[in-house]
Amino acid sequence: MNFSSEQFTTIKHRNLWGQWTFVFEKSRLCCLSYTNEKEPESIKPSALQACTYSATDIEEELPQTVARAYRKVVQQLNEYLSEKRTDFSIPYKLYGTEFQKKVWDALKDIPRGETRSYEEIAKIVGSPKATRAVGAALHVNPIPFILPCHRVIGKSGTLVGFGLGLDMKRRLLVIEGAIPQEMLLE
Predict the structure, then answer these.
(1) Per residue, what are the HEC states of the chain?
(2) How many CB atoms sit inside 10 A of residue 170's CB?
(3) By mean pLDDT, which of 7-11, 14-18, 81-85 is the weakest?
């Protein structure tokens, strides 16, 4: 999805985990991405947030509804990453195919601390042979963390495929208690 039109507000944000890009349509989150410093950025920001705790500076440049939504997403994301939050209550709007939306919707039902296989998700969405299509949909999940695609693993229990990298997937699953902390060393 191309979020470069004027209907979207894009905010770049840096915290201890790295560089984040938030895209809003009014008060709804449409995209949340994490960027490795070595990868080029393709979306130009409407505003740049340098630090988690200096939100007031950026909010002056944003429409009030976007500023409130941004503040809420950042707060909940920080709480989640510091293990103080288990679920998100963020309004969002998804852009994708009907199949992708079915897959993304199925992610909401995977409890924190648990995982599902690509095959299980394919069965849940009514396409039991579409494991590769499930993987493709997960790869373009526009709001990871909120729709927890990191909780989907290989059939044999292996950590495979994650748009933000396997290291990030491993870290998230350790935070959630789905895998032992020793796996961080792998």
Answers:
(1) CCCCCCCCEEEEEEECCEEEEEEEECCEEEEEEEECCCCCCCCCCCEEECCCCCHHHHHCCCCHHHHHHHHHHHHHHHHHHCCCCCCCCCCECCCCCHHHHHHHHHHCCCCCCCCEEHHHHHHHCCCCCCHHHHHHHHHCCCCCCCCCHHHEECCCCCCCCCCCCHHHHHHHHHHHCCCCHHHHHC
(2) 20
(3) 14-18
Give residue 41's pLDDT band: very low, low, confident or very high (50, 70, 90). very low
Better-predicted residue by pLDDT, 7 or 47: 7
Residue 68, C-beta contacts closer than 8 angstroms, at least 6 positions apart: 27
Active site residues: 149
Model confidence at 40, pLDDT cuts 50, 70, 90, reads very low
| Burial readout 44-79 (b: 16 or more C-beta within 10 A, e: otherwise) | ebbbebeebeebeebbeebeeebbebbebbbebbbe
pLDDT at 146 over 70: yes
